[in-house]
User: Which sequence fits this backbone?
């Protein structure tokens, strides 16, 4: 005989048989009940309120958790409640799974918060004379664990912590099998992690609340490795000049990160002890440099990495001062030239679950291109060079204050600069706008020649675009265009077959779609199909910090991404030369 | 149809069907073929020589391994050989599992060598352009591993090591799932571990060859913690006076061990890089002090430990300079007063597998007693005090040069000293001999009174035994006697039911059975049933270093050992008082 369970808060009625577990029935009905501790009755996150029906006596654990959460006495844990008759209940909003949005621009993909790091406020049994157990075994028993990894430093502090807090402590578990910390009292509200976008040019550190998934604050700095080389290739050459240089590169980024972390923690009044994990997303070279692992093999044929997926390690091994046992996770690379930043981007855009044909393009010094069709998941990379970052361009500059990031022609040429400052130079998006304008005006031919005397085209008194600059842009555009063309050709995807083109990279935020298409950087498709996703590397790092299932899925997924080496493709040279002309007209896409 | 396989070397013929794996058939027939790498064809330890019958072509791996082992071309790996017809083969002795003896005195239990640490000489594939793999993934692939833990420091060195050794390297695996080191060339012969007896008074470090199981060398030193307290109780009190003191105790033992390790490595020309694991056996307090974990809770009721079984950690975490990734293993404690030294002793004596009734007694400051019957496995401990170590005795001393360790009466009293030096004092076994002699001579009554003027009994001009000394010995003997009596009574074991009594502790080596029985320290049973096993703590540590199955078995076994707290037993006081009389006559045993 089935009983009815009326859920007032959700205006829903479900059925259950005698003896069935309420938590199971709620879940089965499609309600996202939080089972944070996996029905072990240690987290107190699945409380429901019994309004009518059998109210079993409160047991010790429920009583403790009710007091902790300041709930009324009519609350019971759904993970312990066996149905005995008809019920009318409320499910408090706190007992539902929390969700968060990962990408801040472009598309909205909600993510269920289920991090590796979980905090539990518990009361440990006190020792008794006839049962001379150990503190560690009691801790294991509480979590119903046969094995629980516990670092030695935690054991050193354990007796004091338990004594001072009268055995009421918060235990921080990692992946449900390792204790990272035991803290006195109830500190469950203070649970944080860091997501890091390890960019070649820019570093972004984001402080994230692991309970709510909310971004607390963000810090952005230039990568201080820039002084050793503006792009990846020059940093690799620097690294293998002497073994010291590799260490210099690592020390630079670690100091960078340490300062950013200190700053962000201080201004948000978050203790370093409450940071339990840091997730890094960066390209393969940046990952290697972060860990001080030689990059020589990435520079010479056959261009292989030392690792793609790193085993677990701690932030302490990098000398980063977070919780002493905080974990560090580097988003795995797909291949030598398609790194963890792209894996993160694939995660953030939900590419794996999209139906139809999708292109993901990360525009940076390397243009990484991922094509997802119904059957295939392939990635390639193309050496665009640093022109899009304003480098190797006479008046070029990084996207810093004073950079012309946007140019448009109304009656006269209007220049927009970052920070509205006096123009200092031109960054990538500004260059694209200007080239597109000059093409329209006929100042530059489709083949890239400056018409007339071939002298530089003046923009302001001090800023100009030379013939050489145009050639640099032309090469960069051709590299990306060739990459997109070849990968689509290989899998017989025509541009009209594409359902979406995701453009990632800070670059994307300011990119003028029309102009990007005008010069041929993007295929000439319906502008609505072009989605700017912003910093998908950071967004992916955030998702992989907040969701264990997402991390597991991404790890298995990226093994399936097939890497296409354009350099080995005999069509590459021809296609590249064809692509040198600005615009889309030569593309078979 | 079954084919015959004639094994000439073992004068044995076995049968196999077509397509069956030769390795499986050899194993099934009870021959201890070495399958070091678990039939993965990476170790080259299961070579057999094909004398007659099908000789398949050598494949790349076999060819590499044959060259490495300098074997003839007619050898093939049994783990890859599929039977196709009748065969005549040889099994070289190197292809059989190596065994070693663990206990050096007493009983002979052979142990199959199968350590956690295994070394493999391999040739890694070189990278190719159309397959831009990572070095790490290639390493995993070679061992057919999806997951392989690899420390970051190993990754840093990996590219250089591979390059310099042309991809021919020795990989050190731990528990088949973690790489501890990758070394250039073939270093498989150099694989060592350390077994440590972490005694309250004496430390023993033994260097062990993990390939052969042989003890290479041993170093013995006094525990330098002695200066902070002669026994466990005084060290615990010292430790909790100030937090500094705990660190002092830890620093003392770690410095001690470091010096011993340096010495033993230097005199045997073994590089610290070739030590991959260290196993410690000690009592619960010593284990805590080794790790710098507070011992306060061990001193006061309810006397609980911080841990019994430690999660995995590295020697580096203790600051011991072995291979940078060398593992450290602390033999798990049974309970607060029955530590890892006893777990090791249980392992070394093979107690778990013995039929009948067996007693294991470790005589030290604490007398630990383990009873194994057909149905029960119980342990207890009894505070014998430091008298057996010569402490709290007027002329007492540790078993150091000059100590009277043996006394006998022929025409006159003959005293034997350690190192045959001039008598300086009396150690434990000497005290037992002397008390027994004086009991026989009537100089001491069974109730412990010195007959006559009650003045001290002179042994030499400067050495004597006072009434107070006799009382100290009496208390120590009574503690052990009570422990043995109560535990046997509880499980209704009479002394004639005992099949063996194992006596452990350095003490045991010099103990005179007759005298020990005379004073009542040991039950009055057939002397042949009393087996001195020497330092079973060290022997157990050695076994647990050399055998993964032994370690796993011991870990699950000790969970089943039931701890009996004598202090809680109402019969304790009465039995203890009954036991104060020297001799066995009052014992119900």
Assistant:
């Amino acid at each position: 005989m089935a009983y009815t369970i009326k859920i007032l808060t959700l205006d829903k009625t479900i059925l259950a048989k005698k003896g069935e577990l309420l938590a199971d029935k709620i879940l089965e009905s499609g309600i996202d009940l939080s089972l944070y501790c996996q029905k072990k009755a240690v987290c107190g996150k699945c409380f429901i309120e019994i309004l009518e029906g059998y109210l079993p006596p409160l047991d010790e654990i429920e009583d403790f958790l009710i007091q902790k959460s300041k709930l009324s006495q009519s609350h019971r844990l759904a993970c312990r409640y066996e149905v005995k008759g008809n019920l009318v209940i409320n499910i408090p909003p706190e007992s539902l799974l929390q969700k968060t949005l990962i990408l801040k621009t472009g598309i909205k993909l909600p993510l269920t918060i289920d991090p590796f790091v979980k905090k539990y406020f518990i009361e440990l049994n006190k020792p008794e004379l006839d049962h001379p157990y150990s503190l560690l075994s009691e801790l294991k028993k509480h979590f119903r664990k046969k094995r629980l990894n516990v670092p030695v430093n935690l054991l050193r502090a354990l007796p004091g912590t338990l004594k001072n807090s009268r055995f009421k402590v918060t235990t921080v578990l990692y992946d449900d099998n390792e204790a990272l910390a035991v803290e006195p009292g109830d500190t469950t509200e203070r649970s944080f992690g860091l997501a890091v976008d390890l960019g070649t040019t820019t570093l972004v550190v984001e402080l994230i609340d692991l309970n709510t998934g909310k971004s607390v604050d963000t810090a952005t700095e230039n990568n201080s490795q820039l002084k050793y080389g503006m792009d990846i290739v020059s940093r690799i050459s620097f690294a293998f000049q002497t073994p010291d240089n590799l260490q210099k590169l690592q020390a630079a980024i670690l100091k960078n990160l340490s300062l950013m972390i200190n700053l962000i923690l201080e201004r948000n009044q978050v203790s370093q002890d409450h940071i339990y994990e840091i997730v890094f997303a960066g390209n393969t070279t940046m990952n290697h440099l972060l860990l001080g692992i030689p990059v020589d093999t990435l520079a010479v044929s056959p261009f292989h990495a030392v690792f793609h997926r790193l085993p677990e390690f701690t932030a302490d091994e990098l000398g980063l001062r977070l919780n002493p046992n905080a974990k560090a996770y580097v988003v795995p690379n797909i291949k030598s030239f398609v790194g963890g930043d792209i894996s993160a981007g694939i995660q953030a855009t939900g590419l794996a679950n999209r139906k139809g044909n999708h292109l993901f393009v990360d525009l940076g010094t390397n243009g990484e291109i991922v094509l997802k069709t119904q059957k295939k998941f392939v990635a390639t990379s193309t050496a665009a060079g640093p022109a899009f970052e304003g480098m190797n361009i006479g008046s070029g500059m990084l996207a810093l204050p004073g950079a012309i990031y946007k140019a448009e022609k109304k009656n006269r040429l209007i220049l927009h600069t970052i920070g509205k400052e006096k123009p200092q130079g031109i960054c990538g998006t500004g260059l694209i706008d200007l080239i597109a304008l000059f093409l329209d005006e006929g100042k530059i031919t489709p083949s890239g020649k400056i018409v007339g005397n071939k002298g530089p085209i003046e923009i302001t008194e001090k800023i100009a675009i030379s013939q050489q600059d145009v050639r640099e842009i032309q090469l960069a555009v051709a590299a990306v265009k060739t990459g997109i063309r070849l990968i689509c050709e290989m899998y017989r995807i025509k541009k009209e077959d594409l359902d979406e083109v995701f453009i990632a990279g800070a670059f994307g935020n300011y990119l003028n779609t029309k102009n990007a298409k005008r010069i041929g950087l993007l295929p000439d498709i319906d502008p609505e199909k072009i989605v700017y996703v912003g910093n998908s590397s950071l967004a992916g790092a955030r998702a992989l910090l907040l969701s264990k299932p997402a991390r597991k899925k991404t790890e298995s997924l990226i093994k399936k991404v097939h890497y296409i080496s354009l350099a080995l493709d005999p069509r590459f040279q021809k296609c590249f030369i064809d692509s040198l002309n600005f615009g889309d007209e030569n593309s078979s896409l």
Observations:
- The longest strand of chain A covers residues 202-209.
- Chain A touches chain B through 49 residues (CB under 8 Å).
- Chain A has four domains: 2-95, 99-184, 192-330, 348-589.
- The first helix of chain A runs from residue 22 to 28.
